[in-house]
């Protein structure tokens, strides 16, 4: 046993002689405090609870006997914090005290001091070891299994019930991070505790076990259910005491009838994947997602893309297409710039849309390498148009929020603009709206720096995220790009059209031109023109096309 700290033992006996005999034996290794009866003992335990490593407890005492002390310790839950060895001359009372949670017993008259010391040491050590195991077995806050133990117990569950159909469930929720920031950590802790309580209540219905993975994600391994609503319902009930339903959204990913040929961790990866696929979906009906073959296919597809990325860069499989933007202020639309859009001509899969690989590459940072390739290619293309056609076509490139985190982003852009002899005003950047809400301070710094160098910065996908219209007033931007979804549903005088008009109005007041993207039809074009929109981009004029075809717009 380590000697990092001296342990204290409480000896409880009504006879002074007995206290002295035991005390003398134990004093050689431990600090000792004494109590003369049960009442006295409980008081000492209360006032020294954290420092007492063991109680030696006589059973027969006046005022309050040993078994009553044990009962109290049980009721107060102290028995799981401090081991007790009972002292007795009467063998038959041992059983009851063991039942009441005593760790061991010593019979009077006492054995040799060595035997007593050995049993004391043994009890303390056993107890401390099990406490350590206990501490790692459960999450301190939620009292759910920690991940390693969870997977171990889930596997044991499989062994004991080889034929049971089991579901692997992953639970996480939105806005925890935000709530933690807004309402403080202890409030965050309270949320986690309530969720854990709700999970325990749900398990009473479904059976099974639960563990906690990271702060805000939980695992459940339960016998197959047809309806998982009961689980969310129990948790929501538990949370309702501290949160409004709108403040948090639970998401449950289910790997139903989980295939036992896969390792346990992988089965839960499937559940997590199903859970993550609910990200960004806002409908209240989409709180539960069951893992299916499509997701399995997507997983394989994603792995394929990741694996092929480096080769694709080397072999120039990524192609940059350009979609023209037209200024529609005058009588005739005038080409004013182009947006660079990447696509992947994959040797086996054919053309792969950026929607399928950009979010994937954003997750692991590969997007920055890809984007820099696109940015460099775009800078060269502006140069080529200057040289071959004798015109300047400014190009805007897409910037992922991941790119902005790189400290040398601006240096890189400055370098490629210089190398190709371009003016900074010819090289524009599109940053999606939601990036502005994630790390505002940093992004504003970067954007202001780029603008001070002469670049134009467009806020992309405006209206798709959570930013409010009045946020615009504090954002350093040059151009507003309205999200496609806005345009999709406009009809004369309808709600969407009114919103478009409102955005145009605000932008006008701020002196910021507006690009409407995704414009496909003549009606859309006319409505937008009438409403005072400045610039149009969309299939109405052209799809994104390779540079070789672009000269027809010049
Ligand atoms: P985005 O930046 O909003 O780009 C506009 C998307 O709308 C493009 O899709 C474009 O082809 C499409 N589009 C243009 N006009 C119309 C139209 O009239 N109707 C409809 N339905 N769609 C239209 P694309 O090329 O599939 O790109 C999808 C997204 O992928 C882009 O959305 C952008 O977020 C991302 N992306 C594309 N290229 C890059 C890149 O080089 N780097 C980064 N980081 N993201 C890129
Ligand atoms: Ca864009
Ligand atoms: Ca956009």
Automatic annotation (TrEMBL):
InterPro entries: CheY-like_superfamily (IPR011006), Cyclic-di-GMP_PDE-like (IPR050706), EAL_dom (IPR001633), EAL_sf (IPR035919), GGDEF_dom (IPR000160), Nucleotide_cyclase (IPR029787), Rev_trsase/Diguanyl_cyclase (IPR043128), Sig_transdc_resp-reg_receiver (IPR001789). One of its GO terms (molecular function) is cyclic-guanylate-specific phosphodiesterase activity. This is EAL domain-containing protein (Putative c-di-GMP-specific phosphodiesterase class I)/CheY-like chemotaxis protein. It comes from the Bacteria. Residues 302-554 form the EAL domain. Residues 8-123 form the Response regulatory domain. Residues 164-293 form the GGDEF domain. One of its GO terms (biological process) is phosphorelay signal transduction system. The lineage of its organism: Bacteria, Pseudomonadati, Spirochaetota, Spirochaetia, Spirochaetales. The keyword DNA repair does not apply. The modification 4-aspartylphosphate is found at residue 58. PANTHER family: CYCLIC DI-GMP PHOSPHODIESTERASE PDEF, SIGNALING PROTEIN YKOW. SUPFAM superfamilies: CheY-like, EAL domain-like, Nucleotide cyclase. Keywords: Phosphoprotein.
């Amino acid at each position: 046993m380590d000697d990092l700290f001296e342990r204290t033992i409480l000896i409880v006996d009504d006879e002074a002689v007995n206290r002295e005999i035991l005390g003398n034996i134990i004093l050689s290794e431990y600090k000792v405090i004494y109590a003369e009866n049960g009442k006295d003992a409980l008081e000492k335990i209360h006032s020294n609870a954290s420092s007492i490593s063991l109680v030696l407890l006589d059973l027969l005492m006046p005022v309050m006997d040993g078994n009553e002390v044990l009962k109290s310790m049980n009721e107060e839950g102290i028995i799981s914090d401090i081991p007790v060895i009972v002292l007795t001359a009467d063998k038959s009372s041992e059983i009851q005290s063991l039942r009441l949670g005593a760790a061991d017993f010593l019979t009077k008259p006492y054995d040799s001091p060595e035997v007593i010391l050995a049993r004391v040491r043994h009890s303390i050590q056993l107890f401390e070891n099990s406490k350590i195991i206990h501490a790692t077995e459960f999450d301190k806050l939620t009292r759910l299994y920690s991940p390693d133990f969870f997977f171990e117990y889930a596997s044991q569950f499989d062994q004991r019930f080889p034929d049971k159909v089991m579901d692997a469930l992953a639970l996480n929720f939105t806005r925890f991070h935000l709530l933690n920031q807004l309402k403080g950590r202890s409030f965050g802790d309270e949320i986690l505790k309530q969720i854990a309580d709700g999970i325990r209540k749900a398990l009473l219905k479904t059976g099974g076990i639960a563990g906690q993975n990271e702060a805000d994600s939980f695992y459940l391994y339960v016998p197959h259910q047809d309806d998982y609503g009961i689980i969310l319902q129990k948790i929501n009930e538990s949370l309702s005491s501290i949160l409004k339903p709108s403040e948090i959204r639970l998401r449950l990913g289910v790997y139903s009838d989980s295939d036992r040929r896969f390792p346990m961790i992988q089965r839960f990866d499937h559940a997590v994947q199903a859970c993550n696929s609910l990200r960004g979906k806002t409908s209240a009906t989409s709180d539960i997602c069951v893992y299916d073959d499509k997701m399995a296919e997507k997983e394989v597809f994603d792995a394929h893309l990741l694996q092929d990325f480096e080769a694709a860069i080397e072999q120039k499989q990524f192609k940059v297409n350009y979609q023209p933007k037209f200024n529609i202020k005058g009588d005739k639309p005038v080409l004013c710039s182009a947006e660079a859009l990447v696509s992947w001509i994959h040797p086996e899969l054919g053309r792969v849309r950026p929607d399928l690989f950009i979010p994937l590459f954003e997750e692991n940072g590969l997007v920055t390498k890809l984007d820099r390739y696109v940015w460099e290619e775009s800078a060269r293309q502006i140069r080529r148009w200057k040289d071959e056609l004798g015109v300047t076509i400014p190009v805007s490139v897409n910037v992922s929020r991941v790119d902005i985190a790189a400290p040398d982003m601006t240096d890189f852009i400055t370098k490629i603009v210089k190398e190709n002899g371009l003016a900074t005003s010819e090289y524009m950047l599109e940053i999606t709206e939601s990036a502005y809400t994630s790390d505002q301070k940093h992004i504003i710094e970067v954007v202001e720096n780029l603008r001070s160098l002469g670049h134009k910065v467009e806020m992309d996908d405006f209206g798709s995220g959570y930013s409010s219209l009045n946020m615009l007033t504090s954002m350093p931007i040059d151009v507003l790009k309205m999200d496609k979804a806005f345009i999709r549903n406009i009809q004369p005088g309808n709600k969407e059209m009114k919103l478009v008009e409102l955005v145009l109005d605000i932008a006008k007041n701020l002196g910021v031109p507006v690009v409407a993207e995704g414009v496909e039809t003549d009606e859309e074009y006319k409505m937008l023109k009438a409403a005072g929109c400045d610039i149009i981009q969309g299939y109405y004029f052209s799809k994104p096309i390779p540079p070789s075809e672009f000269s027809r717009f010049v």
